[in-house]
Amino acid sequence: MKHRALLISTSDELTKEATSIARELKLNLDVHQGGLLTDGHIFAKKHQADYDVFISQGGTALLVEELVSKPVIAIPITVEDYLQAFNEAKATNQKIALISYHCPLVKELESLASLTPEIDFSLFTYSSKADFKKQIKTVFSLSNHTIIGLGSCVYTHVKELDIRYVMVKSSASKIRSGLTAAKNIIALNRKERLTTSRVMNILNYSREGIFSVDRDKMVSIMNMSAGKISNVPLSNVVGRSINDPDISQVFRDIYGDGSPIVNETIICGGKAFIVNRIHLHIDKSVEETLVTFQSISEIQSLERNSRTTLKKAGLIAKKSFQDIIHSSAQMHESVLRAQHFSGTNAVVLIEGETGTGKELFAQGIHNFSPRSSGPFVAINCAALPETLLESELFGYSEGAFTGAKKNGKTGLFELAHDGTIFLDEIGDISPLIQSRLLRVLQEKTVLRVGGDRIVDVNARIIAATNKDLFSMVQQGDFRSELYYRLSLLNLRITALRNRPDDIEALCRHFLSVKGAQYGMPHNELSDRTLTLMQEYNWPGNVRELENFIEKLVILHPLENNFDYAAEQLLAEKKERMEVSWQKSDERKPDNEAMTINLGPLKSMERQIFDKVLARVNGNQTRAAKLLGISRVTIWKHLQDRTITQ
Fold it and tell me: In terms of C-beta density within 10 A (0-12 exposed, 13-18 middle, 19 or more buried), how is residue 258 classed?
């Protein structure tokens, strides 16, 4: 809609001056020529919906103001304007007849005339078109008079009778003031409409039902959601008393006694609603009670939709226990143990060397649990510096630091609400992150970086590490309280070198997958080659084996014998590893020492075995050589550890 002003003009002079000033002010001005006698006020009433403001002067302005509900600007006609007309009329040396619409200014002129003998005139007033015709007839019967009037209506009659006529005119400054006032009103109306539109759109697009009850218990406003939630049309509620028995019982129950409440559950009509009531004050007096309410079933539906959105965003666990390829007793036991853990919400700590499949187990636990329909959020804690990891895990508020997003950022714990968060490489987090993580475990709440609002979170934590957290606790590198909370349920994944029975099954699986990936023919490895692979140490565990098979599949077309190619690649790996060990030995003094904790003999033996194996990257032959014992003794030690765990 165009924002416009309408001038009901009483003279050509006014039209000309006002049009010029309106162009200068960039005011969108329409003009209707004709005042009282040509029903200008009736025209204004008929078109009041098309304009923001009306402008006129004299009696026409007063009549327009009575007929329209929009603002009316009366261009001022002052005593000075009349005096100027009197001076012009006196120059004719005739008597003066003033014909004017009846208004307070006329009385001022009469008072002025009684005090100033130089001003002598006969006054003829009118209040309607009929009055005007009667008075103009009387004026025309006078002889030797100059007529003073306002606007063209008088001039139209006198010009045919050759009677002198002086028109009372508003000054250009007064016209400018009137048009400026009209422009300001249009601007103010536009702002008010924008504000009203903004508020109504906020109300109507809110999912919450909203209505307000004034101090007289009348419903003053209600949004569309309130009508949808309660299944009651707006027209049946707005403008009626909240106590009206014809108003839906839902509204009366939700309003209650009107006292302030926050997030209270109210049952009405067999439905449960979350309700808030607040008082709106003006000068410490309660003017209205604003009520918001939402169906609990609607909130639950929104949460389900949110989970669906999270899945589309990739926050899902793609793997299950069926994806854990194995045939060994150790892995079978680990899978059964993990499935048992899935039935609880307790924290799980998964321990194992790099490449053993810790995240695969974490995803399996999530998908086997009651939280499987919720999000699965994973993060590698070792991949990010402390400050970035903190903001990723816990989120941050707007303005928390330079470069922070305008509306802040939701942390991974919040994204994992009603689901699972997997914290890989938990042993690499700093003391600060350890402290904050401990609080999340204790309080089930999150405080965003730079924020001041506590957010409740319901996320199951699964942590994983390739480090000995217990030793880190003893050395003061990891908080003991956090360790004991994380290791409530402990799952240790056996290294691939200690479960050679799985190598054949894994090889078949990877040969099939990688062959299909690269469009290569499916091949099998001979028993001899599989035996060689089972004897290899695989320090990188399953991940190293997968990469080995992928390389074998890619290079296979260059070799006529698939087994020969596999054995050659395996020999190269062993050779590189031997060279690496030799260089490592050259750098280390013969008398290199290690530190172990005092305790029972068995405990100290285990520490020695573990530290030596770690030093030689799990190579049993190398460890046996360093310790001066047989490889069988090393193997028995590892078997004992697996059974104990």
Answer: middle
Contacts of residue 9, defined as CB under 8 A and 6 or more positions apart, other chains included, come to: 15, 18, 31, 32, 33, 34, 35, 40, 56
Tell whether domain 601-644 is in CATH 2.60.40.10: no
Give pLDDT, residue 376: 92
Query: In 10 A of CB 519, how many CB atoms?
Result: 7
In terms of Cβ atoms closer than 10 Å to its own Cβ (0-12, 13-18, 19+), residue 247 is: middle
CATH class of 206-298: alpha beta
CATH assignment, 5-76+174-186: 3.40.50.2300
- Transcribe 348-386 into DSSP letters: EEEE--TTS-HHHHHHHHHHTSTTTTS-EEEEEGGGS-H
Query: Residue 607 pLDDT > 70, yes or no?
Result: yes
Report yes or no: 614 and 471 within 8 Å, Cβ to Cβ.
no
- Whole-angstrom CA distances from 9 to 6, 56, 73, 151 are 9, 6, 12, 8
What does the mean pLDDT of the chain come to?
84
Confidence at 560, pLDDT banded by 50, 70, 90: low
Within a 10 A sphere around the Cβ of 198, how many other Cβ atoms? Answer: 10
Q: What is the DSSP string of 322-335?
A: GG----SHHHHHHH
Nearest to 214 by CA among 290, 285, 292, 288: 288
pLDDT exceeds cutoff 80 at 17? yes
Confidence band, pLDDT 50/70/90 cuts, at residue 290? very high
Token output for 179 = 């048009």
- Contacting residues for 312 by C-beta, under 8 A, at least 6 apart: none
What tokens were used for 166?
């002086």
Q: CA–CA separation, 19 vs 33, rounded Å?
A: 12
**Would the pLDDT of 278 be above 80?**
yes
* Amino acid code (one letter) for 190: R
Percentage of residues in the chain having pLDDT higher than 90? 33
Q: What angle do the packed helices 631-644 and 601-615 form, to 10 degrees?
A: 110
∠ Cα 634 638 644 (to 5°): 145
Locate tokens 């003017």: which residue? 287
Does the pLDDT of residue 587 top 50, yes or no?
Answer: no
Q: Which two tokens stand for residue 146?
A: 């100059």
- Of 456 and 136, the one with more pLDDT: 456
Residue (of 536, 389, 367) closest to 462 by Cα position: 367
Non-local CB neighbours of 251 within 8 Å, separated by 6+ positions:
211, 219, 230, 232, 237, 242
CATH of segment(s) 496-580 = 1.10.8.60
Give the largest Cα separation in the chain, rounded: 146
Residue 8 has pLDDT above 60, yes or no: yes
Q: Which two tokens stand for residue 276?
A: 């808030």
- DSSP annotation string for 550-602: HHHHHHGGG-S-HHHHHHHHHHHHHHHHHHHHHHHHHHS-TT---------HH
Superfamily of domain 321-492: P-loop containing nucleotide triphosphate hydrolases (3.40.50.300)
Residue 314 φ/ψ region, left for φ over 0, alpha for ψ in the -120 to 50 degree band, beta for the rest: left
